[in-house]
Amino acid sequence: MNHNAKIELIKGDITKIEVDAIVNAANSSLMGGGGVDGAIHRAGGPAILEDCRKIVAARARCETGNAVITTAGNLKAGFVIHTVGPVWHGGNQGEAEKLASCYRNSLRLASENRCKTVAFPCISTGIYGYPKKEAAQVAVQTLLHSLVQFPEIEKVILVSFDEENYQHLSYQLNLLK
Question: CATH fold of 3-175, please?
């Protein structure tokens, strides 16, 4: 089976994508923030923040590499999967493994919630400073290997908001052909 056929790349706004689950590059407080996190909270409305508050009340913060799932509120998705990417500290503090965990744990939650389509943003490449080229490599390789474990997930859409991330992801996906 050609697993990379399950991975699609588009340039655009993740809040407008129609999928079963949208992945949010969240911060550990889950209270919304800048970048994609803020955009998802604004577009999805207060129901997402309400669910996040319940999660935080029950389990405190969401640790780096982990993921939690909430309603998608007003978005065209069924769920939002919030994952906390690593802050870049030069690459010698387990950043790649933590970033890979974001993708794996998000797919696991999508699978557990019977999602067949999942949209991912570029995790950690904004304010967290993860180099875009290296992040694209981790994202594509992790998704490629993880999709084998979750055959019920029919399609993953990588959604890039900016041209630089798009080019790096495109390059990684073209290596698979």
Answer: Leucine Aminopeptidase, subunit E; domain 1 (3.40.220)
